[in-house]
Amino acid sequence: MDPRVAPLTETLRLNTKLVRNCLDGIDDTQARVRPAAGTNSMAFVAAHLANSRFFLLRQLGGEEPSPLGRYRDKAKTEDDLAHNPTQA
Fold first, then answer.
1. Is the separation of the CB atoms in 11 and 41 below 8 Å?
2. How far apart are CA 68 and CA 39, in angstroms?
3. DSSP letter (8 states) at residue 45
4. Which has fewest Cβ within 10 Å: 32, 46, 64, 85?
């Protein structure tokens, strides 16, 4: 691994662990709850985080498309989505 990206790799590993801990035991119904008007659900935030990693991958020269792109591209809030994917 290129030593220039080693700190980024460790940050992404830690963030993955933290997000997984936060979502552990949450089902689709719970994940889709919006805590207040104008806020996004846990599902939307988790999808945003995952999609942003594919953006980062492209910036680093990768070509793998985001599997969430068809749901998330151009969506800034949950209100912009026509359909939200479910857990796999």
1. no
2. 20
3. H
4. 64
* Whole-number Å distance between alpha carbons of 30 and 13: 25
Which of 22, 16, 17 has the alpha carbon at shortest distance from 43? 22
Give the HSE-up count for residue 77: Cα atoms under 13 Å, Cβ half-sphere: 6
Please answer whether residues 27 and 41 qualify as being in contact, where contact means their C-beta atoms are separated by less than 8 angstroms: no
Neighbours of 25 (CB within 10 A): 7
pTM summary value = 0.77
Per-residue pLDDT of the chain (88 residues; tens, 9 = 90+): 788 888 999 999 999 999 999 999 999 899 989 999 888 899 888 888 888 898 888 888 898 988 877 766 677 777 777 666 665 5
Tokens of 15: 């963030």
